[in-house]
Amino acid sequence: MPGKRARRHFSQLSDFERGLIIGMKTAGWSTHRVAGQVDCSVCAVRNCWEQWTREGTHARKTGSGATRKTTRREDRRILRQAPVDPTVTRSTIRADAGVAIVPQTISRHLAEANFKSKRPFRALPLTPEHRQLLLQWCQARSM
């Protein structure tokens, strides 16, 4: 549709934009005019203004969900353990980092940082030629 403004989906309003919205609405501007000026949706302007009139603040609400169990410093300590020894276990990382969290949390932190788990070989993988030679050696000594 020509002339239709492209909407910025899933973008959050910055504190500056929220301040602009409140200032313009306080000055008597219409919701549509403010939305065009700030380049956001009418619904975002309306929600921001309703929050201002209801709560007296324009600050974003904190997100829902579980609170973090580790601090940033503990997160860095966990991530520092992985490159030192790629075969280290989650329990060892937890003991070395000194944090009381479940191993799944450590796995999630490592996955967020794109660290892949590496397990030590129990035995070297054999090539087909090695298998054939080993079979011949065993058959020759079976008696």
UniProtKB/TrEMBL annotation:
MF terms (GO), sorted A to Z: DNA binding
One GO CC term, this protein: nucleus
Domain of life: Eukaryota
Domain Transposase Tc1-like: 75-140
Region of interest: Disordered: 57-76
Subcellular location: Nucleus
InterPro entries noted in UniProt: Homeodomain-like_sf, Transposase_Tc1-like
Main location: nucleus
One GO term of the biological process aspect: DNA integration
Protein name stated in the entry: Transposable element Tc1 transposase
Organism: Trichonephila clavipes (Golden silk orbweaver)
